[in-house]
Amino acid sequence: MCALHALVVDDESSARMLLERGVANAGFTVDSAQDGAQAAQMISEKYYDLVVTDLMMPGEVDGVGVLEAAKEKSLRTSVVLITGHASVETAVEAMKKGADDYLQKPIHLDELAIKIGRVRDLNMLVRDSQDLQEAMDVTESTAAETIRELDSRLSELQTRLDRVQHILTSDSAPESRIAQALEALAEPSP
Predict the structure, then answer these.
(1) For 94-150, what is each residue's pLDDT tens digit?
(2) What is the DSSP string of 93-157?
C-alpha cells in the first residue's frame, strides 16, 4: 500500500509542529512549509493527498492561495484550512472554492484526528478503487487474449474436422479414407 502524503503550512512554528504531529499520527508522511509561497512551490513539485494550511499568513500567498495551488495541481488533493474565530466566513468562502473542511484555532488534536481521519479514509478508498480498476483492466486484457487464442485454436480444430469429414465421405477405398483421416488427425497443430 502506498503512503499518503500531506503538507502542513503554518507561519507559526508551534502550530506547525502540532499539526505535523497530528497529521503524522493519522498515518500520513508529512512535509511542512512555513509560508504560503514555500507551500505553493512544494505543491508544484510533488503530489499531496492532503494539505493542511493556516488561512491567514503573511506574504503574497495566504491559505486561499495554497488551496488554489493544491487544486490546480490536482482536484483530488484534500485541503483542510485552519482559521481563527474572526475568519470563519472566509473559511466558508474557501470551502466554496474547493476546501474540504476547516478547523478553528485553538486546534484540538481530537478534532484534527477526526477530520484528517475522514480525509485519509476517503483517499484510501479512492486508491483502492483505482487499484481494483487497474486489476480489472489487466484481467479483462488477459481474458480477451485467452479468448482470442481459444477462438484461433477452435478454428484450427474445426478446419481439421472438416478435412477429416471430407476425407471420410470421399469416394476412395475405405482403408485409404481411414488412413488419410488418421493422418489428418495426427498432424501437429500449426
Answers:
(1) 778 888 888 888 888 888 888 888 888 887 787 788 888 888 888 888 888 989 999
(2) HHHHTT--EEEESSP-HHHHHHHHHHHHHHHHHHHHHHHHHHHHHHHHHHHHHHHHHHHHHHHHH
CA-based R_g, the chain, Å: 32
| 150 φ/ψ angles, rounded to the nearest 5 degrees | -65, -40
The domain defined by 4-135 folds into: Rossmann fold (3.40.50)
* Cα–Cα distances in angstroms (integers) from residue 64 to residues 70, 96, 116, in the given order: 10, 11, 19
CB distance 177 to 170 below 8 Å = yes
Q: What phi and psi, each to the nearest 5 degrees, are found at residue 173? A: -60, 145
Domain ranges of the chain: 4-135, 137-186
DSSP state of 190: -
Instruction: State whether the Cα torsion 134-137-141-142 is positive or negative.
Output: positive
Of 49, 74, 57, nearest in space to 16 by CA: 57
Range from 14-18, 50-54, 61-65, 88-92 carrying the lowest mean pLDDT: 88-92
